[in-house]
TrEMBL record:
Key words, A-Z: Signal
PANTHER family tied to this protein: BPI FOLD-CONTAINING FAMILY B MEMBER 1
UniProt entry tagged with the keyword Signal: yes
Name this protein carries in UniProt: BPI fold-containing family B member 1
Gene name tied to this protein: BPIFB1
Domain of life: Eukaryota
Signal peptide: 1-21
Keyword Plastid: no
Residues in Lipid-binding serum glycoprotein N-terminal domain copies: 36-254
């Protein structure tokens, strides 16, 4: 019984801990109103929304609108419409789409201003009578029930936004007829817009959201591997659409080698401010992406042929440990540098370092199989991120040894610190160029161009890499 009570207590403590732990996503994509506006505007063009406005059945709407089963009103409408030969929209345009936060900050309000000219022909005058019609459609972007996605709802005319005016004054009789036509259009046009245009606006938003999801899911090549994101959960915060992302790393065969889901790892998501969008990627995801470009490998260098001056310095350093060993070093001496594990990228505010474990060995000639000694080295390099267009690049500028240990030795015990300086020089000349050559391929940031921006910019926080559009 005591054991059962202890187990129950532990479970309770774990549950309480989990309740108070904020799980952070591997990445966050924030989309500002500018991106939503541009994308939605383009989708409205692709869906021929202006063509829908041109085809609004104004005359039919007026005929069916006010009668409502009241004979007197129906006869009045008929007496007016018998003077109308045709009535249609002659020109139309959608003005600047606006995206604003709702009053509670949990939804986005989309405002779509419409500007139209409608004309009607009447036997009372030879010219077309034209009317200017201005109105605004308002819709709401909100979370789906269950929080699985975003939807557009409550699409209708903004209250009090409809204005209809006569473009030119004609005779008293024609002006009077135009006034009656405009009075009939006032209740008819909002219903037409809701029934004819709102479905197009909703379809445009759905396609826009689907395109954004496809963009998020597009694989990012990393050498023979690739990184994939997917939406974990969406959110609306004031005027920003926030997509919390999960991630996975896959090898060349499509097998998942690393899952990144929400965890207690910290993630600082800076405010969007004036940037159109930002992609904030957690440190462990960035580290794994870099490691995929620089996999573990072994480098073997004929030091006397490739770097003769360093070979001379190495021989002098070994001579202080063992003169006999130094005399055995021949012109085919080999230095082997083995990177055993994937490097770890450590981010700080505005800076980054790459830490790696290295096995270092010296062979007297290319024919011997046993090294003089084997050293275990913990090293770090200053890592500099930069961008070229929509490509994220990393360059290692230096290398320093934090710890150096003698793992085994065939020339007797010695303090490996005696070799620290020369080994640092060898790693700087051998390892860094090799790793920088692989990192030069870079990481494509396709989201930048896909959202309509030419180049990316980046910044580093204490636990994340943040990508925004570059200000050109």
């Amino acid at each position: 019984m005591a054991g059962q009570r202890t187990f129950t207590l532990i479970c309770g403590l774990l549950a309480a801990t989990l309740v108070h732990t904020t799980l952070m996503p591997p990445a966050v994509l924030n989309l500002g109103p500018e991106v939503i506006q541009e994308k939605l505007t383009q989708e409205l063009k692709d869906h021929d929304a202006v063509s829908i406005l041109h085809q609004l059945p104004l005359l039919n709407a007026m005929q069916g609108e006010p009668a409502g089963g009241i004979p007197l009103l129906g006869s009045l409408v008929n007496s007016i419409l018998k003077y109308i030969v045709w009535l249609k929209v002659t020109s139309a345009s959608i003005l600047q789409v606006q995206v604003q936060p709702s009053t509670d900050g949990q939804e986005l309000v989309v405002k779509i201003p419409l500007d139209m000219v409608a004309g009607f022909n009447t036997p009372l005058v030879k010219t077309i009578v034209e009317m200017h019609m201005e109105t605004e459609v308002q819709a709401t972007i909100q979370m789906k029930s269950g929080g699985s996605g975003l939807v557009l709802s409550h699409c209708s005319n903004s209250h009090g936004s409809l204005r209809i005016s006569l473009l030119q004054k004609l005779s008293f009789l024609v002006n009077s007829l135009a006034d009656k036509v405009m009075s009939l259009l006032m209740p008819a046009l909002p219903k037409l817009v809701k029934s004819q245009l709102c479905p197009v606006i909703e379809a445009s938003f759905n396609d826009m959201y689907a395109d954004l999801l496809r963009l998020v899911k597009a694989p990012i090549p990393l050498g023979f591997n690739h990184l994939e994101f997917d939406v974990l959960s969406p959110a609306i915060k004031k005027n920003v659409v926030q997509l919390n992302l999960k991630a996975k790393l896959l090898d060349s065969k499509g097998k998942v080698t690393n899952w990144f889901n929400s965890s207690a790892a910290s993630l600082t998501v800076p405010p969007l401010d004036s940037a159109p969008f930002s992609l904030t990627v957690r440190q462990d995801v960035v580290s794994s992406a870099v490691a995929a470009l620089v996999p573990p490998e072994e480098l073997a260098v004929l030091l006397d042929y490739v770097l003769p001056e360093l070979a001379r310095q190495l021989k002098a350093s070994i001579k202080t440990i063992s003169g006999q060993a130094a005399d055995l070093l021949g012109p085919t001496q080999i230095v082997k540098v083995l990177i055993q594990d994937a490097p770890q990228l450590l981010l700080g505010q505005g800076n980054a370092k790459m830490a790696q474990l290295i096995v270092f060995e010296i062979f007297a000639t290319n024919e011997v199989r046993r090294p003089f000694f084997t050293l275990g080295i913990e090293a770090n390099s200053e890592a500099q991120f930069y961008t070229e267009g929509d490509l994220l690049l990393l360059n290692l500028n230096s290398i320093s040894i934090d710890r150096i240990q003698l793992m085994n030795s065939g020339i007797g015990l010695f303090n490996p610190e005696l070799l620290k300086d020369i080994i640092t020089e060898i790693l700087l000349a051998v390892l860094l160029p090799n790793e920088n050559g692989k990192l030069r391929a870079g990481i494509p940031i396709s989201i930048t161009e896909a959202l309509g921006f030419e180049a990316a910019s980046l910044s580093l926080t204490k636990d994340a890499l943040v990508i925004t559009p570059a200000s050109l």
